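Lecture 7 notes: from sequence to structure.
We start with the chain below.
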Amino acid sequence: MTFNTFDDASSDSNIYFTILMIPVFSALVVGLAAICAKLTRKSLEDLAESNCHLDYKDRDARITAGVLAYMIDTLHSSQEPHVEIADEGQVVAIVPHRTGWESFLVGAKFLIKSNEEDTKSRAPWWYATDVLGHKDFCEKMQCIIVKADAKKGPNGERANQAAIDEGNEKIRSKENLYVYPTGNWAKLGQPEPPMIFNGAAEHAIDNNIPMPVVRLDGFKSLTNSFFSEKTRNSSFYRTVISGLIPNDVRLRVCPKIDFHLKEENQHLSREEKIRGINATLYAYARYTKDLSEAELQEIDREVAEGRHLESYDNRAKRFQLSRTIKKATQELEELREEAKKIESKTDEAMQTTVAGLM
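Predicted structure tokens for the same chain:
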């Protein structure tokens, strides 16, 4: 940059002036860039927040939910949100559990409002294990932290009883709790369908409420053959890669479970009520392939006719038997290792004796 309006005698002044102006203009450019970036960031944050359908108290949570909702609408589901007008304070079961991001999809597509005039849906609460390593983020997104390595209490108390109690408190305070009754991801090629655990049923019974059930289908990222089955079953693929590949997920709201609330079932024990609820959840969760609406209607018919109870009982027996076999196999290996230690002194002595004879 030069200023030719100066005469030759002042050429040194031109150079000095240019050198002095470089940092000034640089600072001006950097300042303008920072202002533009701040304004752009604010505009993007406002845009993301306006796309959030949920009434999170934390603004960062609303921005995050808005971005995720945009990602869901763009990449993973073209379905219009299902809006349920209901009293708050429900436990919502989601089946089957297949990816790390489907919680965001359900949060964006299954909206519970008190009335039609509400512009926002109540933000759901979730259970999340502490292995995620993002406790602050999980708490902002209304997650109840569950310890992955929790053990039963000294007096037989359930593992993570404090988290279970917190979940019940949320329901009683008119919050909505979304749960995965199968617990772990349903893997491709696994020999058995997912098992249903008792937590969801116990929440419904403890709070005397019906249970909405949401079935998810259309995970193209899990059915494509570009990646091997082993890769598609990996935690990284289920958590990250599957969320970057376009899907066409369909949310199907199944009939609410009210087995435990019906007058004719009030004489049943708590265990029998849990069985009735779990059997219905198992009917909708046991097929991990994508199902069409016609196929789902066959499951509706199976539940209505009561055939699902026998199917669940059979699966529960297989589950208990597999656990018994696993435990017995482990005990057998431990006994074999113990036998080696017990017999090692004699074995070593025999080897010494043989060596001495040679």
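Points to note: The beta strands are 82-85, 91-95, 110-113, 125-129, 143-146, 177-179, 211-217, 250-257. The chain has two domains: 8-49, 54-321.
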